[in-house]
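Hey,
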Amino acid sequence: MLLFNVSLSLLIHRTGRNLLLMQEAPTITDIQEPASQRRRHPSQRTLWQEIRANVWSYIYVTPMVVLLLVFVVYPIFASLGYTLYQWNGIGDPSNYVGLDNFVRVMHDSFFWGAFLHTLTYTVVLVPIQLALALALALVLNNSKLRFASFYRSVYFIPAVTSPAVIGVVIQLIFSNLGDNVNQLLMNLHIIHEHIDWLGDPRFALSLIIAIGIWNTLGYNLVYFLAGLQTIPGELYEAARIDGANSFGRFFYITIPMLRAVGLVIVILAILGSLQVFDLVLVLTDGGPYGATEVVNTYIYHQAFGGSARAGVQPNVGFASAASFFYGLILLGLSVAQVLIFRSINRQRAAERGQ
């Protein structure tokens, strides 16, 4: 635990510090060095010179690139061919159906129902999680806070814990202590009847969203901490001298200075939540009655059979088509996010220029 605390603290500190050092001015030695002895600027090197200058870097990343090509890139292009067949995954695909799988996906009401559940998960989770992460980052970034590294570790540990393990533990908790939880909530007059939290279609998705907020909160917390460490303390000191209170410093210094990193955090949070899978599969397997079926569990069930709907037979071709179709939707949403945020930044820059 101690090593984990130290490593996490160093990660946050170095991430924030490196963002500032990237803009560091050249030293006096660099300025006074004769032009004949200076190294050629990277932009002036040829490709071969660039490779020779960084040969060990390329050697170090080669294993990762090979694994990426074998286990990520190749399966993507291989599964693209399967989209043209109706195939159960056994033997070689032979029943050619062309683009019929894509047409079926676009007209499948169960796919769009799963997409609606995924969208609901994202719309509810992202704002709540980012607000909590920013609030906690502001507290943990306080240099006067004792045991700050310990608190950072506590909030970050769920993020590095397998969602499948978390799902199993949550299932055990509600299986063994569900009645006690219900009784406590009834004594507090929060609910008026016993609820099967994972078996009731009205509450199952809400519970998954709550667990998802807790599970991945640590990532956004670390990102915000890194961004806060790039803000010069002199800005807060100057604002404090000018009489700005805490709210003024937050809205006029913290928020504007976090705008760039905040854009990246929002995009990553949205894309991450749209790919929810493990937690849903372990907790409810898309049930009850399809109330928590998300797109990734829908694809999984189509590929391997069995789901909240009875009679689903394995169809790898249809699942591959659904996967590619959903990938195109995510790509479109990502492009739209970038364009919207870029338009907002341009409008704000134009307003400041006026």
